[in-house]
Amino acid sequence: MSDILNKDLQAFRSQINQIVKELHDLCIDIRHEELANTVSELRNRINEPFMFVIVGEVKAGKSSFINALLNTGKEICKVAPSPMTDTIQQVIYGEKEEEIQINEYLKKITQPVEILKEIAIVDTPGTNTIIEHHQEITERFIPAADLIVFVFEAKNPYRQSAWDFFNFIKDDWQKKILFVLQQKDLMDADDLTVNEKGVKEYAIKKGIEDPLIFSVSAKQELEGNSVESGFDSISKYIRDNITGGKAPVLKLTNNIEISRNINRRIQSGVNDRQKQLESDIAFRADIRETLDHQENKSKKQVGILVENLLAAYDKITLKTEKELSSGLSLFSLLRRSIVSIFNKNASAKEWLDGIANDLETNLNEELKNRLNDGVIDIADSIQQMAKLIDLKIKSSSTILKNNHEIFSNIAERRSNVVKDLQEAFARFMSRSENFTDESLFPEKGSIASNITTGSGMAAIGVILMAVTKGAVFDITGGILTAVGVMFAGVAVGLNRRKIINGFHSEIAKGRVQMDEEVTEKLNTYIDHIKGKIDANFNDFDALLEKEAEQIKILTEKQASISERLSTIEKEIT
Predict the structure, then answer these.
(1) CA–CA separation, 466 and 493 (whole Å)
(2) Distance CA 455, CA 510 (A)
(3) Percent of the chain at pLDDT exceeding 70
(4) Rounded to whole angstroms, how far apart are CA atoms 330 and 327?
(5) Which segments of 189-246 does DSSP mark as H helices, in order?
């Protein structure tokens, strides 16, 4: 039966080892060196015995406790008046006594002690000294420990450094903890009871529902006074709950729980990243919505501006059309033709040139004023768009902090991208050229000729052509004869309708062209500025895209590990 059990345990170890390997790869993927080292150490210790880690302050009696627990009659862990344990000492089973220095902070002590076939014991430096060694303790032994034995000096178990270290063990790694009040022989029974009660209350306050507290005296145990030493109770607990064939299964379940703890911490970190991503996506959507809203608002202003321009255009061209119609009457043309005999400046051609100049001047002045006022309003609207975006950037929510337990590097990367965005946008806001577009309406040249080509001057050109090239007036042949006047009257009557119709047609074309061209140019300008504003978010958008991909991959890996840990746990138990 034991062979079958051993085979099953070996199979479970193999499965757990594979899962832990994948967990280690995951820690490398997220570039968390500390967790990667912890998981690597866990994997290295899967085949080792159930591990007790003894922690406590300097001179609390940890080394003496270990010597008394093993009770070999020898001082396995050295005890001296001054602190001796400046390194981590791992006591393990070996056929002969031997000390092996692993590195500056760790040595292994092998002993041919039967109980060490099932358990290994780790003696650590004091929690209130040799601070630089604590990292070695936490990285190499606390996470991989199967049981923490917290040793207090019985006469003063309330020192802050010990309980600070307890917080790390409890909060970060949720380890099973035994509380030991050592050196009880130095206290009377009543005072010891008070301190036992105090430690129990303190432990419950710290989140331990039913703390196990043992008061012992290593001195009495080593002197052979087992009845008074208190070691019978703790030895019985070990026999009933750990040794006697139970340790290997407990070791596996502990490995599962440690792996699950690390995986949960990664999951919690991934969840924080997901929350930050969702917040950033919402922020980005708000930016786009704001840009779209301001774009629509600005384009409505364009519509109002164009309506004002068209109203001015209609007023001026209608006035010109009336003047032209009146001037092309038979009487006006005859009068102008006769007068021109004596004054060439009074000819129909000069009159038409004057109408053309007046039309251009009036259009230029009126449209320029209305256009300038309207563009200023639109520019103000666009600047308001930029200011709103600037405020939203400055108030964007940060969930993933730079001191995040798992993803501080990701938080820092995001923080740098957001900082660069803020600085880039501040520079963008400070440069007026970002809100101008010289291609719209150049300052040089006539606004009328730029935005009403085909209307004003083209219409006048049609009129001039009809009059000068239609042989309506005899501007070179002297005084018109009566017959000539009658003929001219008939000819002008016919051409007058053609001229007015041509003028009206060209004016209508010009109106449509101005409507389309001004609307297109200003809307293009708005789109252009909107695009320039949005371009500031290119790096931020790239960050969101990369984050979404990475979170998806990490979530799938983490979920797979979690599911397999649960499956194997059910099989073992």
Answers:
(1) 12
(2) 4
(3) 79
(4) 8
(5) 189-205, 218-222, 226-229, 231-241
Identity at 120, one-letter amino acid code: A
CA contacts within 13 A on the Cβ side of 376: 6
Per the CB < 8 A criterion, the answer to whether 422 and 393 are in contact is yes
CA distances from 441 to 36, 371, 438, 445, 447 (A): 63, 10, 7, 9, 7
Q: Are strands 119-123 and 212-215 parallel, antiparallel or unpaired?
A: unpaired
Q: Taking the complete model, does pTM exceed 0.70, yes or no?
A: yes
Q: Based on the number of CB atoms within 10 Å of its own CB, is 127 exposed (0-12), middle (13-18) or buried (19 or more)?
A: buried
- Nearest of 132, 94, 90, 131 to residue 111 by alpha carbon: 94
pLDDT digits (tens, 9 = 90+) for 18-52: 999 999 999 999 999 989 988 998 898 888 899 99
Q: Tell me how crowded residue 391 is: count the other CB atoms within 10 A of its CB.
A: 10
Specify burial of residue 209 (Cβ count, 10 A radius: 0-12, 13-18, 19+).
exposed
pLDDT at 336 over 80: no
Q: Starting at the edge strand that comes first in sequence, how are the strands of the sheet with 98-103 ordered?
A: 98-103, 106-111, 88-93, 119-123, 50-56, 147-153, 177-182, 212-215
pLDDT tier at 133, thresholds 50, 70, 90: low
3-class SS of residue 346: helix
Residue 144 has what pLDDT? Answer: 84
Supply φ then ψ for residue 89, to 5 degrees.
Answer: -115, 120
Q: Comparing C-alpha atoms, which of 314, 270, 319 is closest to residue 30? A: 270
Q: What is the CATH code of the structural domain delimited by 48-245?
A: 3.40.50.300
Closest C-alpha among 95, 100, 97, 60 to residue 75:
97
Tokens 């995951």 belong to which residue? Answer: 26
Strand, helix or coil for residue 377: helix
Amino acid found at 299? K
DSSP state of 476: S
Distances (CA, A) of 413 to 29, 267, 409, 552, 553: 16, 20, 6, 18, 19
- DSSP states of 117-150 as a string? GTEEEEE---TTS-GGGHHHHHHHTTTT-SEEEE
Under 8 Å between Cβ of 157 and 196: no
In the chain, where are the structural domains located? Answer: 48-245, 275-562
Q: What is the largest CA-CA distance in the chain?
A: 157
